Amino acid sequence: AQQVPDILSPEFAADPYPAYRVMRESAPLIWHEATQSYIVSRYEDVERVFKDKAGQFTTDNYDWQLEPVHGKTILQLSGREHAVRRALVAPAFRGADLQDKFLPVIERNSRELIDAFRHTGSADLVTDYATRFPVNVIADMLGLDKADHDRFHRWYTAVIAFLGNLSGDPEVTAAGERTRAEFAAYMLPIIRERRENLGDDLLSTLCAAEVDGVRMSDEDIKAFCSLLLAAGGETTDKAIASIFVNLLMHPEQLAAVRADRSLIPRAFAETLRYTPPVQMIMRQSATEVELSGGTVPAGATVTCLIGAANRDGDRYRDPDRFDLFRDDLTTTTAFSAAADHLAFALGRHFCVGALLAKAEVEIGVSQLLDAMPDLRLAEGYDPVEQGVFTRGPQSVPVRFTPAGA
Ligand code: HEM
Question: Looking at this predicted complex, what is its ipTM?
Fold first, then answer.
């Protein structure tokens, strides 16, 4: 049998995709000592764990993965409690709220960032754009002070490091826990004040939301906002950097998108399939479960490799090729992420922000293409991705004719 590379090894961090293939083909269920979890990699297994039709999985693992940095979030809730919380928060991320209130916020924040470099002729789309844009959007949606965006950015970086700390570095853990205290000290007074002066922003919507007589406490709202920083910032940040690398490395597909912007949702769906920002998600087994390759006992942690499942040859033809025109994506010009890939998970915890993320990518990509008609990668660029838990391009240096030149 082929040697299966360790998910904590440097080779895996450099390029996990060959390892994913070995796992899918010859070791679809692995006991992993260091993370004390069973690793699954095939599309059918990851899909089954996420959908959880038989009620065999919980998200109790988030009690140690998320609680120390965020407090109790929607991801830790289950059953009716989760359904009510979902009903409280979800409307803010779709429909009229998204369309009327937040699209202008997205447009404004993207434009501000682009205006800062469009006259220069060069930029790094990671540091100058992607790592800033989604976090700024969330802070602005919540109605927080622009002057605090840098602070948000710092907290969000510490939270991401905590979540990706698979090897348990104590300094990273301590920094994550400090962030929780700092964020609470910042956010709780703002929430109390906002309850007294409701406005048109997301924070006011969360304060006022009521379903079946249930409302969120200050602590619930603070934990949700904290989760948004990571769940909505980090992920969309990596998706935007990746969609640019994928398109710039495939100039004919970039040209197609440039000519027809209604292809952006397809390019986004294919990017999420091919280079998913969240590469792995854990669950806890509530009962014994039969999966490809063996049995997982009750009470075990299961690591679902989204990055591996999304390249499963039993699900996608020619899975290692980036092709926004592939016919096994159902997305045409509309958006049906749930059917296309596992990057937003599936089932109860399916990403609440999927439509918001799509709006950010559509607007961001379109604005960048408009501002830079001859956008190209810097000469000699060699794409390097980093991250094991979440993953994305380290940098995307680009060149273009400066605006007004
Ligand atoms: C849930 C990925 C953007 C908010 C999830 C989950 C994944 C995911 C994989 C499921 C986690 C699990 O089941 O354990 C992504 C990706 C994004 C993205 C790849 C961008 C491309 C966003 C945005 C927001 C957001 C923009 C909001 C601002 C959430 C929330 C949940 C969630 C609140 C928890 C839902 C629940 O527990 O019911 N996301 N996300 N995400 N996401 Fe996203």
Answer: 0.99
Is residue 391 included in any domain, yes or no?
Answer: yes
Task: For residue 75, give the ligand 1 atom closest to its CA.
Answer: 37
- Domain range spanning residue 147? 10-399
* Long-range pairs, 209-218, Cβ under 8 A, ≥24: 209/88, 209/89, 209/91, 209/92, 210/88, 211/84, 211/87, 211/88, 212/84, 214/84, 214/88, 215/88, 216/85, 216/88, 218/188, 218/191, 218/192
Q: Is 238 in the pocket of ligand 1 (CB under 6 A)?
A: no
Q: Tens digits of per-residue pLDDT, 324-383? A: 999 888 764 445 555 689 999 999 999 999 999 999 999 999 999 999 999 999 999 998
Is residue 2 assigned to a domain?
A: no
**Number of domain units in the chain:** 1
CB atoms within 10 A of CB 140: 21
Q: Ligand 1 centre from 36 Cα, in Å?
A: 24
CATH classification of the domain holding 359: 1.10.630.10
